[in-house]
Amino acid sequence: MTTPEQIRQQLPEHTDGIEVTCHEPMARHTSFRAGGTADVFVRAMTREALVKSLAFFTENGIPFVIVGNGSNLLVSDAGYHGAVIVLSGTEFSKITVQGERILAGAGAMLSDVARAAREHALDGMSALFGIPGTVGGALYMNAGAFGTEIKDVLRHARILDLEGERIEERVLDNAACHFGYRTSIAKEKMLCFLEGSFTLTPGDAIQIEDRMQMLLQTRKDKQPLEYPSAGSTFKRPPEGFAGQMIMEAGLSGTRIGDAEVSEKHCGFLINKGKATATDIWRLMQLVTKKVEETHGVRLVPEVILLGEFEACV
Ligand SMILES: Cc1cc2nc3c(=O)[nH]c(=O)nc-3n(C[C@H](O)[C@H](O)[C@H](O)COP(=O)(O)OP(=O)(O)OC[C@H]3O[C@@H](n4cnc5c(N)ncnc54)[C@H](O)[C@@H]3O)c2cc1C
User: Fold this and answer.
1) Measuring from each residue's beta carbon to the nearest atom of ligand 1, which residues come in under 6 Å?
2) Residue 206: CB partners within 8 Å, gap ≥ 6?
3) Deepest of 42, 54, 153, 262, by most Cβ within 10 A of its Cβ?
4) Distance, CA 230 to ligand 1 centroid (Å)?
5) 149 belongs to the catalytic site
6) CA-to-CA dists, residue 110 to 77, 107, 119, 134, 185, angstroms
7) If 0-12 CB within 10 Å is exposed, 13-18 middle and 19+ buried, where does residue 77 land?
8) Nearest one of 232, 143, 155 to 180, comparing CA atoms
9) Three-state SS string across 139-166, please?
10) Is 71 a catalytic site residue?
């Protein structure tokens, strides 16, 4: 068996392009601030280093996952036995504005892209300001808020196709991204988002800024932003709102360990201190069971689970 340390030694490390650590606590890299370690944690800072690392893991049959800001991830307390790869540094977080188009690297924060749009008086992204994810994570999830999803502004995405014999770079237009409610082609096919190209419309910078601040205030008023969470834990079911159903099921404030159903917004499960991933997972299952009993609706997690989780309710 190859140890994480051996993987680190074998990785085609080259100047400035890559940083590798072993047994990296994923609580440092997830907004839940919980969970175990990643056997290997890779920060890829150039496209070349990224491709070499991905090729290395593929050729050696080592499981890997590309993550963004970890704002929709729950990593098992038993850890992730493979490599977590993060697109890091200036090459992947570059934001370029060309007329009404914005090009943003997959590692750029969505809020920075929305700010760049506002600075250039470009409208269309203000509702996405405040989602604490990267462009890559937002494309994977088709993140959205207040009636706008990232698919509404995406023109095309540059990706690495990880399914063929060789890793190929491709451009997918909006339709080819297969966007749906909190889903994209990346849930069907192994790929890495490298960059998004967004088409916006000319607007008024002051009005855009006002809307961004107003929506941010709405988040602060309605969401428990003072505690670690992954935002809405469950997807919105066709029958209504998950938060409302959870509240009607009498679960507001229900706690397992330090994991709690937020009293401020029942759709958020929060970490009140030292919650483990198991606490959060058990609470997710309890909520699912109770809502099914009271409403006949099976909630589906929006949060992405990484590593092994056992059914326990
Ligand atoms: C306080 C709070 C509020 C939130 N509000 C919202 C909201 O209003 N709307 C909303 O939609 N979400 C919301 N979220 C959830 C989360 O911020 C979004 O889903 C976000 O898009 C995740 O981005 P990320 O970079 O953190 O991705 P991660 O959590 O790191 O990863 C999410 C998924 O994307 C994949 N991924 C990440 N980068 C890449 C890449 N480059 N290529 C391929 N796959 C990749 C990962 O493997 C994983 O499966 C909220 C979260 C928090 C904590």
Assistant:
1) 31, 65-73, 87, 106, 131-134, 136-138, 140-141, 143-145, 186, 192-193, 225, 229-231, 304
2) none
3) 42
4) 8
5) no
6) 28, 9, 14, 5, 19
7) buried
8) 143
9) HHHCCEECCEEHHHCEEEEEEEECCCCC
10) no
Give the tokens for residue 196.
């998004």
Domains and CATH numbers, the chain: 4-90 (3.30.43.10), 94-207 (3.30.465.10), 225-301 (3.90.78.10)
In the reported structure, the alpha carbon of residue 66 is separated from the centroid of ligand 1 by a whole-number distance in angstroms of 12
Q: What is the pLDDT along the chain (313 residues), one digit of tens a residue?
A: 678 888 888 876 655 689 999 999 999 999 999 999 999 999 999 999 999 999 999 999 999 999 999 999 999 999 999 999 999 999 999 999 999 999 999 999 999 999 999 999 999 999 999 999 999 999 999 999 999 999 999 999 999 999 988 999 999 999 999 999 999 999 999 999 999 999 999 999 999 999 999 999 999 999 999 999 999 999 999 999 999 999 999 999 999 999 999 999 999 999 999 999 999 999 999 999 999 999 999 999 999 999 999 877 6
